[in-house]
Design goal:
Elements lengths: L2 H7 L13 H11 L11 E7 L1 H11 L2 H6 L3 H5 L3 E7 L1 H7 L38 H19 L3 E6 L4 H8 L6 E9 L18 H4 L6
Antiparallel strand pairs: 1-2, 2-4, 3-4
Length: 218
């Protein structure tokens, strides 16, 4: 598939047949994600790949509630996803990388609270300012997610991204993820199947290039 076809043809698929994804296909998708750009070539993200109901059940238990599953029109289709790729990022890896000689001049190697003159984004629940105006661990996680989505489309698979809405701590514990990692979200993959109600957001349409692109200045 041409890149332009994958970009234009990709959509969020939220209902799956449940058919297993061949290991070779899944490995090819994940291998492509490992080529995602990364600040300082840090590569500070990890994927926990869950295959089949036995492995995906703890994911759903941590990130959803029984009440949500009972009332969601999407749950049956989502719950059949044969593959869940949960992505976690390592903020500490970026701080350590930017303390190395070729990056130390950036001033980004400090811990929270070391540059009170910069507002920074910080991290949930943490006090003080963060020297990173943009937490690039999340940016890099987004790069990896986008490649997984495009590679899935290229492989003829359906896929969708589920953001981090609840259960981050419970999910880390369930999957044995170190406590210093942050959960970005998960990509569901598999053969499309079953009712897949369109998102109401589609009615908004996409902004045209003339609305998005500002040449020379805003």
């Amino acid at each position: 598939m041409e890149l332009s076809d994958a970009v234009r043809g990709r959509r969020m698929v939220r209902s799956f047949s449940g058919a297993p994804v061949p290991v070779a296909v899944l490995d090819r998708v994940l291998e492509m994600a490992c080529s995602a750009p990364s600040a300082g070539n840090t590569g500070g993200w990890d994927a926990v790949v869950l295959c089949g109901p036995g492995e995906t059940a703890p994911f759903w238990e941590a990130t959803t509630t029984a009440d949500w599953r009972a009332r969601s029109r999407r749950w049956p289709g989502l719950g059949r996803a044969p593959v869940v790729v949960a992505l976690f990022v390592d903020p500490g890896a970026y701080r350590a990388r930017y303390r190395q000689p070729d990056k130390v001049a950036s001033g980004l190697g400090g811990e929270l609270g070391t540059r009170a003159d910069e507002p920074g984004a910080g991290e949930p629940g943490a006090g003080g300012a963060d020297p990173w105006p943009v937490p690039y661990w999340f940016v890099d996680g987004g790069f990896a997610v986008m490649i997984v989505l495009l590679a899935a489309a290229d492989a003829g698979l359906g896929a969708c991204f589920l953001g981090n809405f609840r259960g981050e701590t419970a999910l880390r514990r369930a999957l044995g993820v170190p406590g210093d990692r942050r959960y970005v979200g998960a990509v569901l993959m598999g053969e499309p199947g079953g009712a897949d109600p369109p998102s109401p957001s589609l009615a908004r349409g996409r902004r045209r290039r003339s609305e998005v692109v500002h040449r020379g200045r805003w």
